[in-house]
Write a structure and sequence with these properties.
Shape: globular
Number of strands: 8
Distance between the termini: 33 Å
Radius of gyration: 15 Å
Length: 146
């Protein structure tokens, strides 16, 4: 069982592009909005199984418009691309900060493998699918999970 981490500070940068978060274990992380958006724990991004996870391009300029507390265990982030369905638990935010370098490197590799980039808004499934499906809207990404 992993020990739950609790934030001691959560602060959004003035340009709304970095979430600065400090934890009770001394961990301090500056999490870019783009990284948080493409790592959202929402069904739209993660799917309903690992095989459904999406790789999302075109989010380099995304900003965080809103941070809403969810009980005492998470925050819900609202992004300027209108995505606001991901609930980021403290443990997940700590993990995103702790594993930033490896996760970011994997994300950049996945973009390249699928012919996506950080500037052009397209979505590709993590596994399977064809290139013609990369920009298709279906399932949660097309509003099918509501």
């Amino acid at each position: 069982m992993t020990e739950e981490r609790w934030p001691t500070e959560i602060r959004l940068s003035g340009d709304k592009r970095v979430l600065n978060i400090a934890f009770d274990d001394g961990g301090r992380y500056a999490l870019p909005a783009e990284y948080l958006r493409v790592s959202s724990p929402s069904a739209e991004v993660q799917g309903h199984s690992p095989a459904e996870r999406k790789v999302i391009g075109g989010k380099r300029a995304v900003a965080i418009l809103e941070i809403q507390p969810v009980g005492n265990y998470a925050v819900k982030l609202g992004f300027d691309d209108m995505h606001d369905t991901g609930i980021f638990g403290w443990g997940y935010l700590h993990e995103l900060g702790r594993e930033y370098d490896a996760r970011w490197s994997t994300y950049l590799s996945e973009l390249a493998e699928r012919g996506l980039d950080r500037e052009t808004a397209k979505v590709a499934p993590i596994k399977g699918g064809s290139p013609k499906d990369a920009g298709a809207k279906s399932g949660c990404g097309g509003g099918g999970c509501h």
